[in-house]
Amino acid sequence: MPNTYLHGKTEIGERNVIGPNSIIRDTKIGNGCKVLASVLEGAWLEDDVDMGPFARLRKGAHLGNHVHMGNFGEVKDSYLADGVKMGHFSYIGNAQIGSNTNIGAGTITCNYDGEKKHATEIGEDVFIGSDTMLVAPLKIGDGARTGAGAVVTKNIAEDTLVVGMPARAIRKLERKAKKK
């Protein structure tokens, strides 16, 4: 679409809608993706990714199939597995996020301690509540949930709900059967 710029070693598959107002550099885009008014540098989008407007993918961002990334989000050196939903106003850096996980609006991976960067690992079917701060290094188990505004400083076990600042477990969750 108009005012879209493709630079470097960019590869774009079939049935995509790119732009308007997008800048794409050294990025691989699969098939059936929608990129609206966004900046992508050194990234990889698999198939049927929907992102923007005003999203940014930095070096090492890898979005799996059917990932949704809303407006004003940023991803760097991270993998979002198939079906991840990442709302708006979020930053994900140095993270691995499992399939079908929801990243609530305003979520931040606090991955830099002033000297080095640390990883965040989030399992499958996780729900991260809006405005959650994930202070790395951190591991969040499958099926876990965070309440809105949680500041998570310790690992979260599978199927556990945490809330507060710092986040604390309040109960064990009962996981629903997966849809096929």
Please outline what is shown here.
The protein is an all-beta fold. Helices cover 0% and strands 39% of the residues.
Order of strands in the sheet with most strands:
3-6-9-12-15-18-21-24-26-27
Distance between the amino and carboxyl termini: 36 Å
How many separate structural domains? Answer: 1
Mean pLDDT: 96
Rg, rounded, reads 16 Å
Low-confidence runs of at least 5 consecutive residues: none
Q: Give the biggest sheet.
A: 10 strands, mixed
Shape: globular
The CATH homologous superfamily is named Hexapeptide repeat proteins
CATH topology label: UDP N-Acetylglucosamine Acyltransferase, domain 1
**Strand proportion:** 35-45%
- Report the helical percentage: under 10%
Q: Can you walk me through this structure?
A:
The chain has a single domain, classed as Hexapeptide repeat proteins (UDP N-Acetylglucosamine Acyltransferase, domain 1), CATH 2.160.10.10. It is 0% helix and 39% strand. The strands form four sheets. Strands 3-6-9-12-15-18-21-24-26-27 form a ten-stranded mixed sheet, with no helix packed on it. Strands 2-5-8-11-14-17-20-23 form an eight-stranded parallel sheet, with no helix packed on it. The mean pLDDT is 96. By secondary structure, the protein is mainly β.
